[in-house]
Design goal:
By secondary structure, the chain is α+β, with helices and mostly antiparallel strands. 35% of the residues lie in helices and 23% in strands. Strands 1-2-6-3-7-14 form a six-stranded mixed beta sheet, with helices on both faces. Strands 8, 9, 10, 11, 12 and 13 form a six-stranded mixed beta sheet that branches. Strand 9 (272-281) and strand 10 (289-300) form a beta hairpin. Helix 2 (16-28) crosses helix 5.
């Protein structure tokens, strides 16, 4: 059958009501952080029914701890056995170099909260609301439904198709485990809505580096009960000056570093955030604050590393306080925090991008694609640990700030996403 005609039949066969119902079922089945991933059971049953070889495995954090992109958030060192990753592989009948495609998304969601106390869903004004619907059960649904739509017409593909439904909210530990387990392809798409207002217009091809730096500022205790003594040094006062210096550092970084490829198709700027502040006091005089600590989260580009960013900040602070009697002799102590991610970028001429552009134009009718940078996107894991060119796409959504507003996805964009991924499978694996 002519491929254009085949695509039309596949697109026309996608049942909106069935697709929305499947996504609602995924949302209603819980898979909260660190909790048993019951929603994976639906994914497993669907993959088995479609003839995929299915691999179910936990997050192997002991084997990941030494890797640069492992994020040591509290709790990430140990996941329960029932927190599972699922990978399905549909082997091709005529596999050739370049014919292996991987699709991936994460199935774990934030915990229920006051805004979203349970896993019920609702549809209002063309939007589907629910816990985890945008982050990222929509992505899981798109890849599964797209595969189902294609296999209904072409039960046996020529190329290999791999679907990964992993644990990904807290540093993509499950995605990293799967990539280290050997899963990848000749090209891959990470399907995750992005709260940028661009929806499927946006192709995520640049994942910025991220490093969290812990900054500790030291104070000094004065003489006990000596009211005329001025020898104490308040760590909070020193810490506030250090934070101001960090902000100045960020300003000059924004002038120095512009994330843009040679063709100038997109640009971004570094972003430095100082937060998570803590203090400790002396054991005798409450005014004597001896320790002030905060974290700095820094985005950086391809020309920097974790260590070079931290060294740049250290040198900046040293110069900034060269005339400060206390901070010059007792400089802020810098150490690596939990969050870290290596920057990656996919060339615009890669096959995965060209075919995505083609199918997006076929489905959505536009060709003015937005190539945007993203902070620590999961596209980096298959690139770094599987040598698989990976980009990201996602439907229009909102509410990714869990606990602040309820998550939603645009249903029309969701259906379009299924068509786009179906078209990509047909272009890549036939």
């Amino acid at each position: 059958m002519d491929k254009c005609l085949l695509k039309k039949r596949v697109f026309d066969s996608i049942d909106r009501r069935y697709a929305v119902s499947f996504l609602e079922s995924l949302v209603r089945l819980p898979s909260h952080n660190f909790s048993p991933t019951y929603a994976q059971e639906l994914v497993i049953s669907k993959l088995v029914a479609l003839g995929f070889e299915v691999d179910v495995f936990p997050c192997e954090t002991d084997a990941l701890f030494h890797l640069p992109d492992y994020c040591s958030f509290p709790g990430n060192e140990q996941y329960l056995p029932l927190v599972q990753n699922v990978v399905g592989v549909k082997r091709g009948a005529d596999e050739k170099p370049g014919s292996s495609l991987m699709l991936h998304a994460h199935i774990d969601s934030a915990e229920p909260c006051e805004i979203t106390p349970d896993t019920r869903t609702k549809i209002v004004d063309g939007r589907l609301y629910g816990l985890g619907v945008a982050d990222d059960k929509c992505g899981v649904a798109i890849m599964v439904l797209a595969a189902e739509s294609v296999l209904k017409f072409v039960p046996e593909l020529s190329g290999k198709l791999t679907l990964m439904s992993t644990i990904g909210k807290r540093g993509a530990v499950g995605t990293l485990t799967a990539c280290r387990r050997g899963y990848g392809g000749d090209g891959a798409v990470y399907i995750h809505p992005a709260e940028t207002g661009q929806g499927l217009h946006e192709i995520k091809s640049y994942s910025m580096g991220v490093v969290e730096i812990k900054v500790a500022v030291k104070g000094r205790q004065g003489r006990f009960h000596d009211e005329i003594d001025n020898s104490e040094v308040n760590a909070i006062e020193c810490g506030c000056r250090v934070i101001q210096a960090v902000r100045k550092w960020d300003t000059q970084r924004r002038e120095k570093h512009v994330f843009a490829p040679e063709d100038g198709s997109f640009a971004g700027f570094p972003c430095t955030k100082a937060d998570i502040i803590g203090c400790s006091f002396g054991d005798r005089i409450m005014e004597d604050v001896l320790s002030f600590e905060f974290t700095v989260q820094v985005n950086f580009g391809m020309d920097e590393t974790f260590s070079s960013v931290m060294e740049d900040l250290r040198v900046w602070l040293s110069n900034e306080f060269s005339d400060d009697p206390w901070l010059s002799e007792n400089p802020p102590k810098l150490s690596l925090g939990a969050r870290k991610a290596t920057p990656v970028m996919v060339n615009r001429n890669e096959k995965i991008i060209k075919l995505l552009e083609k199918t997006l134009t076929e489905v959505k009718g536009f060709d003015d694609f937005i190539y945007q940078y993203h902070g620590a996107s999961d596209i980096r894991m298959p690139i770094i640990y599987g040598n698989t060119p990976t980009v990201g796409i996602g439907t229009l959504c909102g509410g990714l700030r869990a606990g602040v507003e309820r998550e939603w996805i645009d249903i029309e964009d969701f259906i379009a996403g299924i068509k786009v991924v179906s078209g990509l499978i047909l272009d890549w694996c036939l």
